[in-house]
Amino acid sequence: MSSPTDALQRLRLVHEDAVLTTLRAAGALSRGQLTERTGLSRSTLFAIISDLMDRGAVIETDAVPAEPRGRGRPAALVSLNPAAGLLLGLDLGRGRVRLAVANAAQQVVATASASLPEDAAPLEEAEAAIRLAHEVAAERGIGLGALEAVGLGLVGVVDETPAPAPLDLPGIPRTLPACYLPVARRVAEEFGVRVAVDNNARLAALAEATWGVGRSVRDMVYVRWSVGVGGGFIVAGRLLRGAHGAGGEIGHVSLDPGGEPCHCGSRGCLEGGIGGQGLLRACAARGIRLSGLDALVAAAQDRVPAVCEVIVSAAADLGRVLAGTVAQLDPALIVVGGELAGLGTLVLDPIRDAIARLALPRSPREIAVAQADLGVNASAMGAIALLVHEEPSIPAHLRPSAP
Questions:
Q1: How many CB atoms lie within 10 A of CB 366?
Q2: What is the pLDDT of residue 246?
């Protein structure tokens, strides 16, 4: 049975979390604004701010008034202390690891990437990510001793299946599937901090909703069109994972149940037809052999007719799948990311046309379709957004000590 002291301590942590979460979302605010947004009393808020300042979690700066004020000093602003801690986002994709580092004020202070062998084992991927983090830290003068948490974006279904054995490291989700344990375990061992894991396409969706083209809407569908085809759904402002961690797997909608087998176990999946390899095969069938996805995108940018025809047809297939998603989720916005999204209207227009024709065409609503803002670093940035918004916590060394 908990004591009154324990209850007061938990209540104080809830109040602190409300203040820190508000500052993460809104940036610098006056004490009066924090009182309004958190609903805390003035005396409670001032006591919490004072304690957070003593522990270095927040700092105070002078406000710069937008227009001349009367006598007196402008109200001071409270903000997260950029030097209080760092967050590391890692995206272990197909053939590449990408990294983003953000400070406590959610400012991205470094991004980088390195190649991965296509057949890299999980531990090889983990070592490559760790090596890249240390290289970037050394080059940019970033102290990884201030690291608070790591977000990991991984390919595939990140579900809620219990781990096969108890984990001996704090911070790793106990429901992480066995195939991801070596990566998360190695990263946690290296940095000694909390590790949060999710599908990298879903993390790209979260990044676009946090900092990118989707930041002004609460309901959004994101699709990443690249070597593979993945996605993520933002519903009422939150990332939708689904009951088994398969939310957003747009690429594994079957367009032809009698088609080619897919690695997911189904047949005729969208990804097999319009993913990177499928597009290259379609071009080869038309007599145009390309070395890879980058060469295909370059040929489309040069408006090679046969390549453009392949991409437009593939975009129409994607649009048909998205039309079904739109009919079910009713988002305000469809965001298209990945290398193919860089082709602009060549891919966006067929998607718009399919949605207009097939997703409740008599409805007066309008569903916007836009190119993603954040480019190739979206998933690494989404791994940071996961730490900030989806799994908020007060770092252990910033928590008040027990009375």
A1: 8
A2: 84
